[in-house]
Amino acid sequence: MSEPEKGKVVRRIILVVEDEFFIAMELESVLTRGGFEVLGPANSVHQALELLKSQRPDAAVLDVNLNGEKVTPVALLLRSWGVPFVLASASDPAELARHDVFAKVPNLGKPTDMTRLVEVVRSL
């Protein structure tokens, strides 16, 4: 998070990676109303990595499967930076548990309870 200017409220920056357009827009809207600044949404691994070249978020909300591509490279980069993230994915919990980068990460599932999402992101 950048240094706040005197008298300005600093909003935490949350990366959103989601390939389904309407879900991405809902995530952006809910997080913005929850007091966060949204980085993205990115709809692919490539787009997310490009966004991360210019800005480091405070936390992230990731879908695991992006048009047949796994979000693993993004999750690994975030983890290497110490940036916490939560999953909003319909992926099978047993499948997620087989991947070290996802094994202990909260998965809010799909459809995602947006009130719970904001609570979890606030706790990251």
From TrEMBL:
Keyword Phosphoprotein: yes
In-chain residues carrying the UniProt-annotated modification 4-aspartylphosphate: 63
Segments traversing the membrane: none
Entry annotated with the keyword Transcription regulation: yes
Single GO term (MF): DNA binding
Swiss-Prot/TrEMBL GO biological process terms: phosphorelay signal transduction system
Domain Response regulatory per the UniProt entry, residue ranges: 13-124
UniProt-listed SUPFAM superfamilies: CheY-like (SSF52172)
Superkingdom to which the source organism belongs: Bacteria
Entry keyword set: DNA-binding, Phosphoprotein, Transcription, Transcription regulation
Matching Pfam families: Response_reg
Protein name: DNA-binding response OmpR family regulator
Native organism: Rhizobium tropici
